[in-house]
Amino acid sequence: MSTTALPAQSSDFPAWYGEVVRRAGLAENSSVRGAMVIKPYGYAIWEAIQRELDDRIKATGHENFYFPLFVPMSVLAQEGELVEGFAPEVAVVTEAGGKKLEEPLAVRPTSEALIWSTYARWVQSYRDLPLLYNQWANVVRWELRPRLFLRTSEFLWQEGHTAHETEEEALAETLAILHDVYADMIENVLAIPVLRGRKSESERFPGAVDTYTLEALMRDGRALQAATSHYLGQGFARTFDVRFTGRDGSEQYPYATSWGATTRLVGGVVMAHGDDRGLRLPPRVAPQQVVIVPIFREEDRAGVLQAAAAVADELRAAGVRVRVDDRPEYRPGFKFNEWELKGVPLRIEIGSRDLVAGAVTVARRDIREKQQIPLARMSAAIGEMLSDVQASLFHTARDEHERRTLRDPGSYDEMIEYLREAGGFVAAGWCGRRECEVRVKDESSATIRCLPLAEQRAQASTCVCCGRTAVSDAVWAQAY
Fold this sequence. Notes:
Elements: H1 13-23, E1 27-29, E2 36-38, H2 40-59, E3 63-64, E4 70-72, H3 73-78, H4 80-86, E5 91-96, E6 99-107, H5 112-122, E7 131-140, E8 154-164, H6 167-188, E9 195-198, E10 210-217, E11 223-233, H7 235-239, E12 244-245, E13 251-252, E14 255-262, H8 264-273, E15 290-295, H9 301-317, E16 322-324, H10 332-341, E17 346-351, H11 352-357, E18 359-364, E19 369-374, H12 378-403, E20 405-407, H13 412-420, E21 425-430, H14 434-444, E22 447-452, E23 472-477
Parallel strand pairs: 3-7, 15-16, 15-17, 20-21
Antiparallel strand pairs: 1-2, 4-6, 5-6, 7-8, 8-14, 9-10, 9-22, 10-11, 11-14, 12-13, 17-18, 18-19, 21-23, 22-23
């Protein structure tokens, strides 16, 4: 591990991010341009996210399946909007087994086309519906400006693909996934507050009737799209001729949804909580919630190590993820710095003086404070502290989110200046016209992140861009 200081967030956030991802052992660039190697520590964070999402997905009645990585170009081409939307990012295989393929194969950028071409065989009657399925997979989108976790040519994700008898069922599914699966996990596990909203027409997923999104604010004032849930209407069913006999005997097309979250959430955890010393991981997603560092002279070695092992066993029995760092080749100070960089929520220091006092010293990573805890109540105290760290990180991020949201700016110029500086979110009235959306993007590099679900504009409100009557609130920001 490098001993030089990290770049400061305030002076060079991109450099800070890249160094934290590298030095904390999350990921590194591979020999394939734009693709990353996810290292064990980074993958452990992704596994925690996976488990939490998978549990919620299954709890809402969905099952996992798996479809091939390759999509015949003829199948992909049937969905015109999907092809047009992903065309610049699609990787195509034209040769295999030493021969030119009769039909090129796309490496999936997303799976709607292949899955809906298959659903045509699975759906004949209303009794076959709903189809509630999810896939854990990798996808490839040829990225021009890659950044580890945030934008890579290959990334990991889950993608849900459901079919429903009625529009009402499909819309309810779209919003339930947004709120009960994604928002619940991101806020309560990753401790990242999210803005719930609907995308403007220009920002929708290709082929979607409506795209719903969760937008998070990073510590540099830029937005991160944390997850999306799409209401697809009947478009994919009509394109791939998926029909069923309804309850009244008539032939009908099912209504579709799709939804996904990706490994960019790992990058979101880094950028939402990290500080100038490295990661600050929420306990619920941390690979190790507690690291124990024994501190001893040679004559105390056996007793201190035995005590450290006993503390670790007690905490593991209480369901805490623990590591004892007893590496003899490194001094305690080096270990302290390393685990601070890696963002472990709590560090327990055990030395001979602690044993004499019948206590341990506990350091919190989030606020960098230490306190001594009696061994007799150590397990209960650690559980309480982990809960407090989890809540504290969320509250800190929520306060930052609020502080950096400019609501109803006094003028268009004030809004543009704030957006150019990546100050954070700007919430203001919007007339709904594409011209105003493009104007803001051209003058500030900011896009409409969402039209918030929870807010209604008064009829008298005006568009911040043109002064016309506003049809909705819009939230703008520069984004990853």
